[in-house]
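User: Here's a chain of 282 residues. Predict its fold as tokens.
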Amino acid sequence: MSVLICDSNGELWHTRAKELGLDYISMPYYVGGKEYFYDLGEHTDFKAFYAAVRGGEIPKTQALNPEDYKRILIPYFERGEDILYVSFSHKLSGTFTSLEAALAELKESYPERTCTVFDTKNICLGTGIQAEEAALLKQKGASDGEILSFLEDFRDRVRTYFIVDDLMHLKRGGRCSGLAAVAGTVLGLKPMICVQDGELKVIGKVNGKKRVISTLANKVIEELKDEEKHVYVVDADCPEEGDKLRDLILEQRPGAKIVRQTVGPVIGSHCGPGTLGVIFSA
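Assistant: Prediction complete.
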């Protein structure tokens, strides 16, 4: 059985990752010209990050290079361990080209070792939920094949919905045209976005904070099938709105197991402050 790992773009909280026995790859971000690596919230100064962005700082993210991946993977291979990596969407980053290059090189030195990469075709806790379920199966003694078979089906049941407060952050990340970003900002329209087949898709536009909260709440209320699974309600530096969203869901689905969480700096660099989201399995 392989060592199960994920990455910090899956955004499981550090305590949850430790409970599950999950190792993770820390993804980098830059603020004020300084490089940081997201540690699933263990030592992250969220307030400082979002204050900098609100103050005009433009954060950046960057793909890991092949040398980074070799540094991360070699210790596992040196110990004679194989890897099952539950990753965020390959369509959302060029980092996996570097991973493939690193694995091709490492195969020459460690021909007996394997690293199986499962593309969750999701991001944020849409990936994290899948890593969480994989880890729970592993704790029950499931084989790699059994875990992968489960994930192939479960992946299509994961729902990731979020609404951003400022379209300009998506525009900088290439997710929204400049014209649409300016028009949306002027009109006060906020796009509702989901993840489909590993890509971000705009599925509607919402005007006003109350409608943002009710729209997201209704997605959970209407689509949540299994109340035994976690529902993640996330916010990017707007905790009061996130709490209202949680409470509105619980009014209609009191049995829902809701986890409140802050959006990390890597994802936050693309969505910006004021983003609200819900992630769950249907």
